[in-house]
Amino acid sequence: MSAKTRKPTARQGRASVASAKAAAAPEPSASFLLEIGCEEIPARMVARAATELRILLGKYLTAYELAAPEAIETWGAPRRLTASIPALRLRQPDRKTETLGPPKAVAFDDVGRPTKAAESFAAKQGVAVTALEVTSTPRGEYVVARKLVPGKPAREILAEILPRAVLELSFPRSMYWTRSSGPRFVRPIRWIVALLGDKIIPFSMGEIASGRVSRGHRFLARQFRVPIAQAGDYVRALRQQFVLARPEERKERIEKELSRIGMQHRLRLRPDPALLDEVVYLNEYPAAILGGFDASYLALPEEILVTVMRGHQKYFALEDRNGRLAPYFAAIINSNGDASGTIRSGHERVLRARFSDARFFWDTDQKCRLADYLPGLAGVTYESRLGSYLDKVERVRWLARSIAEGWFHSGHLEADIASTDRAAELAKCDLVTEMVRELPELEGIVGGLYAAEQGEPETVAAAIYDQYRPAGLDDRIPRNLPGCALALADRMDSLVGCFAVGLVPSGSSDAFGLRRAALGVVKILLERRLPLSLSAAVATSARLLRELAPKLDVPPQVESQVRIFLQDRIRYVFHERYNFAYDEIDAVLAAGADDLVDAEQRISALRAVRRSKNFEPLAVAFKRIRKILEKAGPPEGWRMESVRTDLLADAAERELHASAEKVAKESARLKRAGRYREALEQVAGLRPVVDRFFDDVLVMAEDDAVRRNRLTLLAELLREFSDIADFSEIQTESAAR
Amino acid sequence: MKTKKAEKPQGLTFQQLIFNLQKYWSDRGCILQQPYDVEVGAGTMHPETFLRVLGPDPYRVAYVQPSRRPTDGRYGENPNRLYKHSQLQVVLKPIPDDIQTIYLESLHAIGIDLRRHDIRFEEDNWEAPTLGAWGIGWQVLLDGLEITQYTYFQQCGGLDLDPPSVELTYGLERIASFLQEVPSIFDLRWSDDTTYGQVRLAEERQFSAYSFEAADVDFTRRHFEMYEEEAAVLLGRFPGAAEDDLQRERFPVLAAYDLCLKCSHLFNVLDSRRAISTTERAAVIGRIRALACRVAQAYLAQRGQLAEALETEARR
């Protein structure tokens, strides 16, 4: 029987369950072990698979009341996924179930004899009619069948759920290896160890039956088969056969080995946490070895050397005490050491060949200048509807120039327009170089290196080099303003272009990295505090797409889609990085803030003023005004050209009108000067007159003209004072009346 | 202890390496086939792989396949890159349970003591877009050097493979350089008294010159189109179910496949002449794949196994 028994049966009413816990006696339990022995699982997938296995087992073991999810530990290694639980119940607890049947009146006749209904209910529940009981419910008295369902042995349950949980693991790509109807997994499963204490949990997957025999290190193990006597022995038994089952243990060993090498040779390791995580899952028994390369290769840029070492060979780069790259590397090998130096010399030979290729690419590429590669970009498609990279370069040049011009004229003199233009012109040339074909991860960086090598101004070279920065929220932004202009223009063109052809990111699909592009835009502008009207930049980008090749038809709604998409990232960054509350951000964005630095100042001001005593009540009042205006129907029905003072009958409304006029003038002056906080304080100071107005004046007056005049007064108030932040977006303690 | 023996050059010669691997796989039930006599870019394109992995019949085969990669040509001046390199290709269907161990033992057979080296299987899912083929597997690294592409074929000619095959592709020059510890492929001893350079250097120079400079782009394009057209016309005549068995058995599917291979090679030549933009590239690859997929279907249809293959696919 499965968890299904716990579900209420549709017709018979509700069943409830209670565990019948043995009160005092300690429950018999045993340690549990599951090991899925596999051919080498891709390193990048192992950790995730181990986590998923823990979650899946947790789900099943909780449902069957065999173990608490916190008790489960899972580990991954290249050839195995392991789950271990120190204590798992040997038997599922007995459960008392209650199933409601027909009402008492239906189940028993006048003299208390069971009816047909009672009999069939009892039969269905598998209890004697005489065992039926009566219980009172809010709906009256009902027949109830109470049963004690004995728990099943854990081994039986495990044999059923373990293969299910394993096959439920999800991988980016799975395969079959026997028949297409056989099991599918990330790589072929070759053995399974499943033990409860010292007993095998019997099941099979495809042609593999579970057992107690694991495998040790392929080459170092003293024996091919490693029998596990009982679950608790696992880690130790494997360690004896040169497999460190727990990733933490392997990581520790690698770190220790690396620092030993550093100490011995007076070298410093270039930290590389991502590589460290990767080699943890590439080796069962890791050791580090030091290798060297010819110092003449150090003439190549470090970026290239490190990428070759790291990306292709998974070597750690080392530096000398001055922080300069040293002609050495550290390789992690799946072995017990390299006494004879055979492994080292093999790795050195491979690296030499790789470096000599890199030098060949460098020399070949230098035979012509970066600009000579530009025509070749006509043959590289950016996206079929958005044209070639040459088309993109043309658009980005225009946009980058216009951004830089804006900055230059607003006093950011570092935004050199000629440099920006040159950087944008050369930005994508490296796409057709040999080096980027070989090392695509160095796109942009190679262009920057070549530009510097060929005597382009440093500003231009740096701008090209930095164009894909920031890669994420924690990455650096371009170091100079031409670089910022280029990075922004490139991303803006991608955003508007992709949205225009319907490549809108959804769920996990974002092939062109638009989310990251938008985050980059936000980060660059805020971090360098650069002025830019986003809506204007989006509009310019759309215009360029329409006017330049491939002369795309960009419908106007695309612009607003992109603005909304950007707003989502803006909210995210303001919230995550600036700790602003969402309602504060929304209030400012709703007021039409379009320049991020300006928006940031407004939100800061709003945040400061928010704490003052007048603010919240005023925000409540603004919400109330908005509601009143909404209720009044479409403005055409009541809106007057302007407030007519002669119709202001009441003292309170005259006062509001006068104060509002005065405050509006003053706050507008402060706003223009960028003194948002003082401007908002002025507005907040209106609170007493607004309160008095609502206390004394009935907006919906009977006289048509008076009512319309009052509505107009409120509408103007709302408009006038919502241009820094829309107060009605602010969440208030006391909800609007 | 220095004796004359210690001076004996180290490692197997290039041809001994081939002998040993062929012997090893022959002992494990493989048919030893010969290289295909049409230009190919990889051993996978040999009909002994491309066609034999289709359908349910068990098969085991090994062969050397000289593989032409025009863009990799370096006029014989780069110590590690070749216009034409040699692969030793092994295909086993169905896949033995202990295939990884069998493979590792083959390294022992060519003089590699696994206990003294660093062997690893690193994720590398192989794909041949011109063949509509892909598989799951690894590159096998020996002390950081990629020596074998190891693939569990899942699809070929656009068809799901049932049962799947395993394909082991040994890079012979790389392995030989490793064994002989020579700095350049051209220094390899092909036999006891002849070097790889003596045997092959002229070929490397001339074919690099041809594919980078001399190949006439216009002619090559026209050749491509003619082969493509002939393949398409031929495949269009594949007899339907109504026609008699003899006619079907004699239908030259294999010739159509040769034409398709010609297209693939000519595409590579055009590519090395930089006559194919990335924009055009995907489209041309698609055209070759379309032919390869039609060949695969015709091959199975000829053997009366197509319906079964399509049924399996529909079930999934």
Give a description of the structure.
The complex is a heterodimer of chains A (737) and B (316). With 737 residues, chain A is α+β, with helices and mostly antiparallel strands. Chain A folds into five domains: 152 residues, Alpha-Beta Plaits; 48 residues, no CATH class; 108 residues, no CATH class; 210 residues, Hypothetical protein af1432 (Orthogonal Bundle); 133 residues, Orthogonal Bundle (Isoleucyl-tRNA Synthetase, Domain 1). In chain A, the strands form six sheets. In chain A, strands 2, 3, 4, 10, 11, 12 and 13 form a seven-stranded mixed beta sheet that branches. A four-stranded antiparallel beta sheet of chain A has the order 1-5-7-6. In chain A, a hairpin with a 2-residue loop joins β3 and β4. The longest helix of chain A has 24 residues. The radius of gyration of chain A is 36 Å and the shape is flat. The N terminus of chain A is likely disordered. Chain B has 316 residues and is of the alpha+beta class. Chain B folds into two domains: 207 residues, BirA Bifunctional Protein, domain 2, CATH 3.30.930; 101 residues, Up-down Bundle (Methane Monooxygenase Hydroxylase, Chain G, domain 1). In chain B, 45% of the residues lie in helices and 19% in strands. Chain B has eleven helices and nine strands. In chain B, strands 1, 2, 3, 4, 5, 6, 7, 8 and 9 form a nine-stranded mixed beta sheet that branches. In chain B, α7 runs antiparallel to α9 and α7 packs parallel to α10. The longest helix of chain B has 25 residues. Classes of the chains: A alpha+beta (737), B alpha+beta (316).
Distance between the ends of chain B: 65 Å
Largest sheet of chain B: 9 strands, mixed
CATH-assigned fold name of the largest domain in chain B: BirA Bifunctional Protein, domain 2
Number of helix segments of chain A? 25
Overall mean pLDDT of chain B stands at: 93
Globally, the shape of chain B reads: globular
Poorly predicted parts of chain B: 1-6
Largest sheet of chain A: 7 strands, mixed
Distance between the termini of chain A: 56 Å
Helix content of chain A: 40-55%
Structure summary, number of beta strands of chain A: 21
**Chain pair with largest interface:** A-B, 48 and 45 residues
CATH fold assignment of the largest domain in chain A: Hypothetical protein af1432
Report the average pLDDT across residues of chain A. Answer: 91
User: Which word captures the global form of chain A?
Assistant: flat
Identify the CATH architecture of the largest domain in chain B.
Answer: 2-Layer Sandwich
Number of helices of chain B: 11
Determine the fraction of residues in helical runs of chain B and give it as a percent range. 40-55%
The CATH superfamily of the largest domain in chain B is: Bira Bifunctional Protein, Domain 2
